[in-house]
Amino acid sequence: MSDSLASFDPTNNSAIREELTRYRPRRSQRYSSVNILLMLWKDDDIGVAPEVAKLANFFRDCGFLVWPYHIPSIDSQSKLHLKVAQFVDLYSNDADALMIVYYSGHGGKTLDNMSSECTWAAKRVGGPTVDWSNIQPTFVGARCDVLILLDCCFAGQAARPHLSNTVELLTATDKDQFTPTGKIAGRPSFTAVLMEQLALALQKSGSILVSELHHRMQAKECQLVKQPFYTKFAESQTGAGIRLARWVPMDGCYAAPNQSPDQAASFYLRVSLFQPLSPEKRTPLLRWMTKDSPANIEHIELVQQSLSDAKAIGRLGNQVLEQGDAQMQSTEATISSRTREEANRLIEALDASLKLPESCQFEPLDVSHVVESIGKRSRDLLAFLKDNLATIGKERLDDIRGQELPNFQDLRSRIEMRLFLIHDEVPMGPTKVYFDLPVPLEQRRAVGKAAEETVLVEYWCYDASDHSITKLATQAARVSALISEKKDEAFRILPGLGYIQETVRQRFGFIYQLPEGIGSQDIYTLAEIIPKVKYVPLEVRKRLASAICQAVLHLHSIGWYHKEIKSANIIIFRRLVPSESDATVDTYYDMENPYVVGFDCSRPSEAETWASEDHSGVKGNLYRHPDRWGKPDRFERQHDIYALGILLLELGSWKLLPGMDGSGKGFENVKKPLKLRDTMLAIADAPRLAHSNGSEYSEAIKFCLSDQNWGEFEPWEAQKIVREKVLQAVSEGENDHCKHST
């Protein structure tokens, strides 16, 4: 093995590594962009416009760029041809992109009954027409993949052979067939079933092949009176096929770190070539390993690069140890002896796994064990480093940041955030936000405009008599700047755009960028959703719980305490085109993408508390650790974990905390915090919670709420314990994934 790897051209090694790394996020989200041309007649006599508008919103909700086009009744053929040519010219140059072409309206044969061509018509009888056979070649000649969706009669007539990039055709019917318009009850249209089945597939699995979508639409339950038609034109019929998934930009998002592969779902393959790999021959090989790989391949890993990455992680570990036990400056931390011992243990284990036998001949199981051992030990050390960022000195973090870390973007991002968290300078001043109406003082959140962006402003008030205005403004600027830092999606924090300050009303506001299409009526807190929605599937609640747990672990890894974790500070957006129009149904909301807000009290772990907190009355204390009632102790990690436990209890019971009081008084009569905690532990220990969520979920809640002697744990120990006792317990079928993802 070692001789073979050493003889491989390093230029090829680098090119393959970079392409596999670049493409990895596309394994599930296949395309760099998705552009859709929606075509319908300006003067049709069916009335398809409302359904097409609904489809357009659905695709926008998926993150696709939608371009509606109404085919004019005058000079139809030439104007449509021009529009199509412009569309293809603009959006087909990127080979990693996807174009979707959709048409809804009349379809039929040409006047020549012997011809197999297909025409589109604005009206059932008479009216303008276009010859689709003259339009289709423009699309199939594109450099990128193309999906053609036709909801019209005789749609199968459009099938034509093609011999370059992947082009797939999914239509309402085969040739010589009519299709329903969806105007009659019990006879849904092709478009309606397409939306329904695609939405269900994306909600359940996150993505779906067009061929699989076609299969789902053929089910009897879909009630299509005509079977949809599917065909694929491609250079290789064994290619991966077009996979549809919700699209999100890759900027600021990173692929999940390498996980230990399931033995039943992985194997090791050695590729031998007839001749040395030249740059010209490398291109088709790279395509075979990326876009043309089968759709069920999650990742292809270059073993030699795994060794290089493991060695790089080992070097980082040694650099951290070099910090030593010398007294650091006031802004820096020291490494404890226990942390040093654990680091040495992990580094030695990794070094041992990297000492490969001299022989280049391995039995299959030996190869598997060697690669998996290296991967596991490097992941263990990397997780340890991430969990210790708050204990590593500023100078050492600066040194690590200055190194080339192309395969550790999440680590680099966390280092950047940690450095910003402890940096003395605050580069950001107030920002101007415009609102349609004045925002009342009692209103916590409002939607406005900042630099043409739709933004969410989250207000918090202050008492000028208790704090220096300059100090408050500095802290607000620091937190808002930290929120604005580029970060991993797992932090579950909306992109920050600064803050505003209102001196008359004595309040600040953090500004968040909202996703495209989201307005003031589309934003809900978890505290608002729980009483409104009666039933939510267990797997949805567990994914929601897992996302929130990971967010807390990510915050703590850089030494950032939230201090106000509760259901009122978790926001969830309405789906732009929900499966249901009823706001009391869970599919109305995008439960898989919660966001954490309420950072007005958050701070670095080593900083003093700076914002005003309400510690009076039970209502303000329900989520708080008993040590934080009355005259509170200094905020520590365990106080966030306690609040997380209360939130998990609400998700498991699907009931807000006040509603769990059997007396119906919302615990308002409780004066002793320890008594309230005992009540919460009793609810978590009740058989009903374990019955509906599983015993591990119940144990996770009890762990969060119980005393754990947190002061005895090092930061990395606390992170590891929470990951094992809480995150893995609440995650639905994702235990292996969660072990090293935080």
TrEMBL record:
InterPro entries: Caspase-like_dom_sf (IPR029030), Kinase-like_dom_sf (IPR011009), Pept_C14_caspase (IPR011600), Prot_kinase_dom (IPR000719). Residues 441-742 form the Protein kinase domain. PROSITE patterns: PROTEIN_KINASE_DOM. This is Protein kinase domain-containing protein. It comes from the Eukaryota. The keyword DNA repair does not apply. One of its GO terms (biological process) is proteolysis. It comes from Ophiobolus disseminans.
